[in-house]
Amino acid sequence: LSWASATACNSPVNSPAGARLQEVAPSFLVRGARIGGGSFAVIAGPCAVEESLDLPVLARKLAASGACALRGGAFKPRSSPSAFQGLGEPGLLALAAARAASRLPIITEVLDPRDLPLLCAHADVLQVGSRNMHNGALLREVGRAGLPVLLKRGMSATLDEFLHAAEFVASGGCTRIVLCERGLRHFDPAVRNLLDLSAVPALQQRARLPVIVDPSHGTGRASLVPSMMAAAAAAGADGLLVEVHPHPTTALCDAAQALDPAAFTSAMRAVEAVLHALGRELTRLPEPAALTAS
User: Fold this and answer.
1) Which residues have CB under 8 Å from 280's CB, separation 6+?
2) pLDDT for 47 beyond 90
3) How sure is the predictor about 286, in pLDDT bands with cuts at 50, 70 and 90?
4) pLDDT, tens digit, for every residue of 172-231?
5) Band of pLDDT at residue 290, cut at 50, 70 and 90
6) Distances from the Cα of 56 to the Cαs of 31, 76, 92, 216, 268, in angstroms?
7) Beta carbons within 10 angstroms of residue 227's beta carbon
8) pLDDT for 53-105, tens place per residue?
9) What is the predicted pLDDT for the residue at 193?
C-alpha cells in the first residue's frame, strides 16, 4: 500500500468503525428539543447539583433566557478525593424536580457503569466527561443504555481519538450522539484550556454528528465565556454547554468559570444576534400542547 492509501484505510471515516458513525442520526429530539439539524441548542446549568441550590427556580430562568436543556452533575469526577463528589441520587431527584418545573430535559454525567440503571431512571441524556473519553468499557455500556449520549473531547485527545471514542458509543447501539469540544490542556496558565473552535467544522466535515462547544471549561474564566459563546455560534457549532450558577462565588465546583443568570441572559442576546446574522435560530422547547401532539 502507498502511504496515502494506508492513511485512508486508517481514517475513522473510511474504516468500518468510522462507517458506523455515518449511520448515527445527524439530529434528534430530546423531550421536544432538537439537537442538530441546523438548530442551535443551548444546555445550561450548574457544574454540580448542590443541596443549597433552588434548582427549579434556576431552571425556569435558564429556559426563559433560551436554554433548551438543563445540565447538572449528580456524580462528579474531581482531581482530589477530598473535593465535592456530588450528591448522588438526591442530586438526580433535584434535577427531576427542576425538569418538572421548567420542562427542560436533563443532561448529567455517568462515571460508573453500575450507576446506569439509576441514571437512566431520571436522565434524558447521558454525559461522558473528558476524563472518561478513553474508557472504552464505559463508552460501550453507555451506548447500550438506550439514551442519547453527550461525549466530551478528552483534554489531550486528537480528533481521530475523539471520533474513535464516539465509535465505541455507537458500537453499543447508540444512534444519538453529540460531540462536545471543551478545550485542550496546554502550556499557558492564563486560561484553563485552549478552546479549539477549529474542531467544530473539522468534526462536522468528517462525521454527521452534532458538535457543541463548552466555553466554560474551554476558558475557565467567566469573563471570557460570553465571547466564546458567540464565537462558537459563528464557527457553526450546533449548540453550547454552559455553566450557570445563581451565586458563582459560592459554587462547590468550578466557581471561577460559572456565569450568573443575568450574565447568561446577556450572553444569550449576543448569541442570538450572531445566529440571526447567519440565518439560524435557537432551539426552543415546544409548547406543551405541541409536545403532546407529537
Assistant:
1) 38, 39, 40, 233
2) yes
3) confident
4) 999 999 999 999 999 998 999 999 999 999 999 999 999 999 999 999 999 999 999 999
5) low
6) 17, 20, 13, 22, 20
7) 13
8) 999 999 999 999 999 999 999 998 877 777 787 899 999 999 999 999 999 99
9) 95
| Strand 149-152 versus strand 69-71 pairing type | unpaired
pTM given for the model: 0.91
| Residue type at position 238 | D
- Residue 14 binned pLDDT confidence (cut-offs 50, 70, 90): very low
Q: Where does residue 287 rank: exposed (0-12), middle (13-18), buried (19+ CB within 10 A)?
A: exposed
Q: What is the pLDDT of residue 16?
A: 38
Cβ atoms of 224 and 191 closer than 8 Å? yes
**What one-character-per-residue DSSP string does the chain give?**
--HHHHHHHHSTTTSHHHHHHTTS-SEEEETTEEEETT-BEEEEE-SB--TT--HHHHHHHHHHHT--EEE-BSS---SSTTS-----HHHHHHHHHHHHHH-PPEEEE---GGGHHHHHTT-SEEEE-GGGTT-HHHHHHHHTSSS-EEEEPPTT--HHHHHHHHHHHHHTT---EEEEE--B--S-TTSSSB--TTHHHHHHHH-SS-EEE-HHHHHS-GGGHHHHHHHHHHTT-SEEEEEB-SSGGG-SS-GGGPBPHHHHHHHHHHHHHHHHHTT--B--PPPHHHHHH-
176 Cβ contact list (under 8 Å, min separation 6): 24, 25, 28, 147, 148, 149
- Residue 274 corresponds to which cell in the numbers above? 450572531
